[in-house]
Amino acid sequence: MLKPPITLSIVPSRYQAGCHGCLFVGGLSLAAWQFSGGMAMLMTWLVGLILSIILISRWSAFSANPQARSSDILWIEPTDNALQGRWLQNNGEMSHPHSLVCRYLGPYLICLGVGGRNIWLWPDSAPLQAQRELRRYLIAYRS
Asked: 141, 134 in Cβ contact below 8 A?
C-alpha cells in the first residue's frame, strides 16, 4: 500500500543566516588579527560593519513580517521503490516529477537533491510534522 504524499512548504531559515553570520564575524576577526596594522584593521572592520548592517536589515525584515519569507512548495510522493518530488509552480500547476535523492540525513539538517537542485532543510524551514514524515520516508526508501 502506498503512503500518502507529503507537502513541504520550504522557507528561508533564520538558523542558516545566523550560522553564516557567525562564520562571517569569525573570519573578520581572524583577518583583523592577522593583518594587525592600523589601516588594514580599520578597513576590515569597516567592510564588516557595512555587511553586518545589510545582514541585520534583511534579518529584521524576516522577523517583522513572516509572510515576507517566500516559500517554495515541494510535493513528495512515494512510488514503488523511490521517492519523487514535484514543485508547485507560480501558475498553480505541479511540475513534472523529479527523482528525489537524500544527500544528507542528520539530526537537525536534511539535504535533498530534487531535479539537480540541493535543498537544505533546517529545523525552522519547514513544518516539524512534515519533516518527521519526510524522515520516515527517507529511512524507509533508503537504498
From this structure: no
Mark out the alpha helices in the chain (DSSP H runs).
Answer: 14-35, 38-64, 128-140
Between strands 83-87 and 117-121, the pairing is unpaired
Q: What is the separation, in whole angstroms, between the first and last Cα of the chain?
A: 19
The per-residue pLDDT for range 82-135, each reduced to its tens digit, is 888 888 888 888 889 898 999 999 988 999 999 888 988 988 888 889 899 999
Q: Of the candidates 140, 141, 92, 127, which has an alpha carbon nearest to the alpha carbon of residue 13?
A: 127
Nearest CA to 43 among 31, 52, 53?
31
Give one DSSP letter per residue of 96-124, joined into a string: PPEEEEEEEE-SS-EEEEETTEEEEE-TT
